[in-house]
Design brief:
The protein is an alpha+beta fold. It has 20 helices and 22 strands. The protein has a 6-stranded antiparallel beta sheet with strand order 15-20-19-18-17-16, with helices on both faces. The protein starts with 15 loop residues before the first strand and ends in a 17-residue tail after the last strand. About 9% of the residues have low confidence.
Length: 641
């Protein structure tokens, strides 16, 4: 695009992602070869390689066809093929037919080698000799990889091991040759099985058995056929399979494994739901807004796969080291072999094999990233984050449900000094109001009054009837109990109630019937009232000693009482106010207990001199040492104490 002087032309380039399966991607040396081939191309924006999955993700423009990428890799005999990027729709094995055959051959080779070692001890040396040759013959995959390395002119681990096997055969040591081949096979078998185990865990976090979902009208459909716009049913215990929006029903969803929120989230018509959440109560009809492959859990799995393609500093160092290490070892082995004989050549080749060095970084990194996501629901987006843990100095912690159990307990209920209602009466009214709600805070308050349900029922006591129940957003609830309007909520709820009572007072003062007044008289009366209000505001200092209205005075006293009882609990707890007929009648303090494992973990952090920061809902993080007890004022997402 032409641009005039002093102006810039912006060109938007659309990139596409191509995923390639590379069967002969074994270590960092092949990874470096792939980067050297694809990285310099103008059409390629980024090359991401996962050695653990033998997968290459290439971000490129439409000027480079995916088939061309595959052809370039196969010219280096890397065994490349296009791979579908969609989410795996099974929690079972991901092995294809060729991989199953290969693993079967590997397992058979290990068994035969074990028999080779055991048979001479029971008097069958000739049979052991024959099995040793069979083990060598079953190392055909090793020789194939070595042959490809020679054709690529890139010596690797397989080439060094193949040289060792051939050298042992030349010397007539068939059993030693079989042992080298079996050792390489065992390493490959352990690696593949370990990665499949952690991969299956990750796939299980995306799609849970059974692989079907109920639909209206009865019956089930496979998750693979669930498309955007389809309606599916959820009952208690079901896992949300795909992101969607509620079209009917009400339920409480446990989203702890999706968002980390410990409190169940109420869902009703029009609310959105995320895949991976679990229905803990109620039922829902949900219209899918994305297929399983586009769900939240699938995006998490994709993010983990992307993280496995990132390079840590150690892996970059190992990759650079491997480019000259293997040729150097082979050259040194040849030199020593010419000087001290063929046996010394083989010793150097076997001893200098960098299998553990080249494989440790990528495979440990890939397994760790997957296990963190599958087992602990912790998404790490870059491999360098793992290395950064070694030098971490501070850590931020969520409180409710992370450090604590998420189950609140009533610690204090204090009536205001001089209040007309006793603690027992307030407690009964609070329980009656909260009994109409299903929030965890409400259940805790009801349980604090009833105690053991069986004993409460046996005593013949019951909660008083309520009417006019109302939820006030996330701040509180209210209802009429025994002729009193009782509300329970946080500070925002208290302030709203105070404003409401003042508005009612103003309305009472202005109850003159102006509807029948002439317009001029009505306007004059309004101007006079405005002047009186202005004069009252201007003369406020002259009446500083006059008492505040009852509701305002009670609110002020309640906040002082709340600060007092909170300080007695070392700053821990969440405050709720009990409001009776528009006036604060009492203050409650609730808190949830630390998890049993929280204290040992805090001690471990203290031992490592870590600083912690607890994030509150309405405040900036407060940084403290791990030995200091943290204030527990985090508020649930559906109703704030």
């Amino acid at each position: 695009t032409d641009a005039s002087p002093g102006h810039f032309a912006t060109v938007l380039v659309m990139l596409r992602s191509t995923v390639v399966r590379v069967d002969h991607l074994c270590c960092g040396m092949e990874a470096k070869l792939i980067r050297d081939m694809l990285g310099p191309l103008e059409a390629v924006a980024e090359v991401k390689i996962s050695v653990t999955d033998r997968r290459v993700n290439v971000e490129h423009t439409d000027g480079l066809a995916p088939e061309s990428i595959v052809d370039m890799l196969n010219r280096k005999h890397l065994g490349a093929s296009l791979q579908d990027k969609s989410v795996v729709e099974s929690v079972g094995s991901s092995f294809n037919h060729a991989e199953i055959v290969r693993l079967t051959v590997n397992a058979t080779q290990i068994v035969l080698f074990a028999a080779t070692l055991a048979l001479p001890r029971v008097g069958f040396p000739k049979m052991a000799y024959g099995l040793a040759w069979a083990c060598v013959a079953m190392s055909v995959a090793l020789f194939h990889e070595a042959y490809l390395a020679l054709r690529r002119r890139s010596p690797n681990v397989e080439l060094m091991m193949a040289i060792a096997v051939v050298g042992a055969l030349v010397q007539g040591n068939v059993v030693e040759a079989a042992s080298v081949g079996a050792l390489v096979t065992l390493m490959d078998l352990v690696k593949v099985c370990a990665l499949e185990a952690v991969g299956r865990r990750l796939r299980g976090s995306v799609v849970s058995e059974p692989l079907g979902v109920e639909v209206p009208g009865g019956g089930k459909v496979p998750l693979a056929s669930l498309a955007a716009g389809d309606v599916y049913l959820l009952r208690v215990g079901d896992v949300v399979p795909a992101d969607g929006r509620v079209v009917a029903g009400t339920a409480a969803l446990d989203e702890s494994r999706v968002s980390g929120e410990a409190m169940p989230q109420a869902k009703r018509k029009g609310d959105s739901v995320l895949s991976g959440a679990i229905v803990s109560a109620g039922y829902l009809h949900v219209r899918a807004e994305a297929p399983v492959s586009g769900s939240f859990q699938a995006r998490v799995a994709s993010a983990v796969e992307e993280a496995k393609t990132t390079l840590s500093e150690m892996e970059e160092l190992v990759g650079r080291f491997a480019t000259w290490y293997t040729p150097t070892v082979l050259g040194l082995a040849v030199a020593l072999g010419l000087y001290k004989g063929f046996q010394q050549f083989l010793v150097v080749v076997v001893a200098g094999c960098p299998c553990a060095l080249l494989g440790a970084a990528p495979f440990v990194q890939g397994a760790t990233l997957t296990l963190l996501a599958g087992r602990h629901r912790l998404l790490v987006k870059h491999a360098r984050t793992l290395e950064a843990l070694a030098v971490m100095q501070a850590i931020g912690l969520d409180k409710t449900g992370t450090l604590t159990t998420g189950h609140f307990e009533l610690l204090r209920l204090e009536p205001l000094p001089g209040a007309a209602h006793t603690r027992q009466v307030l407690h009964r009214w609070v329980a009656a109001v909260e009994d109409q709600d299903n929030h965890p805070l409400a259940r805790s308050l009801v349980a604090s009054y009833k105690g053991c349900v069986a004993d409460f029922v046996a005593s013949g006591e019951s909660l008083p009837a309520t009417s006019g129940y109302q939820r006030h957003g996330r701040d509180g609830v209210s209802a009429t109990v025994e002729g009193r309007r009782v509300g329970v909520g946080n500070l925002a709820f208290l302030e709203a109630a105070l404003r409401s009572s003042q508005a009612d007072d103003d309305d009472d003062d202005d109850d003159d019937d102006e509807s029948e007044m002439p317009p001029r008289l009505r306007a004059a009366l309004r101007r006079r009232r405005e002047q009186e209000k202005a004069a009252a505001a201007a003369g406020k200092g002259e009446h500083a000693g006059e008492p505040l209205p009852a509701a305002v005075a009670a609110a002020d006293a309640a906040q002082r009482l709340a600060a007092e009882i909170t300080s007695e609990q070392a700053g821990s707890g969440s405050v709720l106010y009990v409001i009776v007929d528009g006036v604060v009648g009492g203050v409650m303090l609730l808190d949830d207990a630390l998890k049993p494992q929280a204290q040992p973990r805090r001690s471990a952090m203290r031992a490592h001199a870590l600083t912690t920061a607890v994030r509150r809902s309405n405040e900036a993080p407060t940084t403290r040492q791990p030995s200091t007890r943290q204030p527990s004022t985090r508020q649930p997402s559906t109703r704030q104490p």
